[in-house]
Amino acid sequence: MAPVELQKQEGLRPSQVASATVKVWDPVVRLFHWTVVTACILNLFVFDEGKYWHRLTGYVVATAVVVRIIWGFVGTRHARFGDFLPTPGKVRAQIFGMINGSEQRYIGHNPLASIMMLGLMVLLAMTAVSGWMTTLDAFWGDKWLEEMHGVIANSIMVLAFIHAAAALIESWRHRENLVWSMVTGRKRA
């Protein structure tokens, strides 16, 4: 929303517009995000592989992914996939905008963040399914499946670090705390 439009809509003085925030991330999106962050940290660094708590945490992640996919179709504006579907043109425009300093600021996910978010969701689903498959009699003790599960989980860790670094860099570049916005649900207008 443009500052002038925000000023008119909210009845704010010009000095108030600069510090105004808007709701972006609803509670479902934020709960999904922090559930996945917590679960990945626990399963990668705390819980023993294949044991009860590791499996339970995997089922929590699987449930969170299913809820998030549903919410991507019926949720609030910035939660919907249609709001941030990354097209090749949008991705190109963001990359070239970053290079030449004319990058568009997005209230919701930008195109590159959209790719990261969708990629992480796919990997989370693949990890949950491959982990569940290791508990089936048909795959019991199959090393290839366990190795694939581990490779996918490690891929999530790598992408999560890239995602976190990008959030910090973008926070600095755009002068707004993107991590805090995922806690409060609000971003600078």
TrEMBL record:
Iron recorded as keyword: no
Alphabetical UniProt keywords: Cell membrane, Membrane, Transmembrane, Transmembrane helix
Transmembrane segments: 28-46, 52-71, 112-132, 152-172
Subcellular localization: Cell membrane
Pfam families in alphabetical order: Ni_hydr_CYTB (PF01292)
Ranges for domain Cytochrome b561 bacterial/Ni-hydrogenase: 24-185
Highest taxon of the lineage: Bacteria
Its membrane topology: Multi-pass membrane protein
The keyword Cell membrane is annotated on this UniProt entry: yes
PANTHER family named in the record: BLL0597 PROTEIN, NI/FE-HYDROGENASE 1 B-TYPE CYTOCHROME SUBUNIT
Protein name: Cytochrome B
Source species: Rhizobium lentis
